[in-house]
Amino acid sequence: MMKPPKRAAMAAQAIRELIAAEFELGDQLPSEAELARRLAVSRVTVREALGQLWLEGLISRRWGVGTFVRQRPGPAAGPFTSVFVDLHDIGSLPHRIAATGRTPSLPHARAEQVPATPEAAAALGVPEGERIWRVERCLAIDGTPAIVLHDHVPLKVNGVPFDPAPVTGLGGDFPTLVHATGTRIVRDEARLEAALAGEGVAKLLGVDAGTPVLTTRQTSHADTGTVVLSTRCYYRQEVFSILLVRTVPY
């Protein structure tokens, strides 16, 4: 009998061939159960195979929707210019960047308790001035500063004290931490905007103050009906690009 890792590797290759033969960019793949039936393997094996294909950048996964075909970036080659990721993907941002063959790092990360600003209070639904967590991170790609993230989260989520310390390292992500409180993030809403980098953001990104940057304002909604995370991202445009793919249901 073949060992599970070998079965998963063979299933991953079978799914690659299936995608090449039957699916286009943006198409939704069959469910895990259907893939398991077609490949004559267990759902566990299919899940492991899909995890490998996600790491390779061949597919993306969307909460409550399914698995979709995306362009496979292939191995990184030549000088670094820009990296593309799918905003619908549920993996952490460093994980998605690593899947493109690039190396993510966090040259700056800090978590502190601060009074909620009017913007953060409105997003989280808490009184202005209430103490909340503020996490500031600068994410670099192949050593080049690419994104500054300002995260705001209540001191307690679902009544449980929240500790954001793990996200100050590459291995931590907010959905996992929120899930540990007995709730989970079920929907993200993001708004794309153009802005000029302020002094603090500009310093972290390594650009001049006033440089145009792309920003997103994102709120993460939990299954309790509350907003548990508000994030503002600032993207250095010559380093990081956002690819939006829309699919038409049949």
Automatic annotation (TrEMBL):
GO terms for biological process: negative regulation of DNA-templated transcription. Keywords: DNA-binding, Transcription, Transcription regulation. One of its GO terms (molecular function) is DNA binding. Pfam families: GntR, UTRA. InterPro entries: Bact_HTH_transcr_reg, Chorismate_lyase_/UTRA_dom_sf, Tscrpt_reg_HTH_GntR, UTRA, WH-like_DNA-bd_sf, WH_DNA-bd_sf. It comes from the Bacteria. The keyword Transcription regulation applies. Residues 4-72 form the HTH gntR-type domain. SMART domains: HTH_GNTR (SM00345), UTRA (SM00866). This is GntR family transcriptional regulator. It comes from Nonomuraea longispora.
